[in-house]
Amino acid sequence: MFQTHRVSKSMDELIRELKKSGVLRSKRTEEALRAAPRELFLPESLRERAYGDDALPIEGGQTISQPYTVVFMLELLQADARHIVLDAGSGSGWQSALLAYLVGPSGHVHAFEIVPELCAFGTENLARLPELARRVTMHCRSATPGLPELSGTIDRIVAAAELKHVSKPSFAAKSHQCEREALAEQEPYRGIRRVRAIGLRSRNGAIAAEYEVLRHALDPVPAAWREQMKIGGIMVYPSGNSLWREKKIAADRFKKEEFPGFAFVPYMDLV
Question: Can you say whether the dihedral through the CA atoms of 131, 71, 7, 91 is positive or negative?
């Protein structure tokens, strides 16, 4: 059996602090924290610091996120029993284990980690909690393509690294022979950059093509995630020093909320 190490601050103390701050609100999230002790997901040399409210270094030059941030994201995500969850950037495996508890034995977590040594580290850590590990499939690759075989069935998506413009713009739409009489104006919009095309005309009357190319190119969320999440699903991700919560309300419509004041390591997309 895996032996836990003596820690300088207890889990109970951390949970009291998180409750006092107002970030830890649900009993289920508290139960998840107790079911997946953070110390099991840290290098041995750092286990005594497991229950401080700090981000800590792990394998591959990455970090395990601050408990406050992880709990904040879980409360926004509202993962529940039977949910299918895509966890992008699983790192140490701690958040994946927390999600595995929340989705229960009838749900499943698909955890993605592109750094090979970090994926191995997270897999090893999860194995210390066999009941939760059975609810997690580790994918040692980029999360950007998502899971096409599960398209339309994914209930929740969460990213533990800052999403930027992971899609490179393709300006093939210029072959539409568009005549632009004005500029495309960029303005910040809820952590994503919205493009407003002004005075865009084309000889065949199709004015939207180039606008759509620009809009998708500047969206930090991979298009596959938007397509594969079911209607009613929720995604939570960091971008531009804020956390964002999006709820899919129709095939191509999302309700967005911003929660500023967070910093994350960059999302790695090496496909």
Answer: positive
Predicted confidence band at 263 (pLDDT cuts at 50, 70, 90)? low
**Beta strands 63-64 and 56-57, pairing class:** antiparallel
- State the Cα torsion 6-7-12-18 to the nearest 10°: -160
The per-residue pLDDT for 170 is 41
Residue type, 263: A
Which residue do the tokens 């580790």 mark? 138
CA distance 75 to 198: 39
Nearest to 129 by CA among 228, 33, 37: 37
- Using pLDDT thresholds of 50, 70 and 90, give the confidence band for residue 61: confident
- Rounded distance between C-alpha atoms, residue 118 and residue 123, angstroms: 8
Integer Cα distance of 4 and 45 in angstroms: 12
Q: For CA atoms 13, 19, 22, 26, give the dihedral sign.
A: positive
Residue 118 tokens read as 């970090």
Q: What is the mean pLDDT of the chain?
A: 81
Token reading at 239 = 């971008």
Q: Which of 8, 21, 45, 65 is labelled catalytic?
A: 65
Question: Which of 103, 156, 97 lies closest to 123 in space, CA to CA?
Answer: 97
- Asked about 175 being catalytic, the answer comes back as no
Domain architecture of the chain: domains with CATH: 11-165+223-260 (3.40.50.150), 171-217 (no CATH)
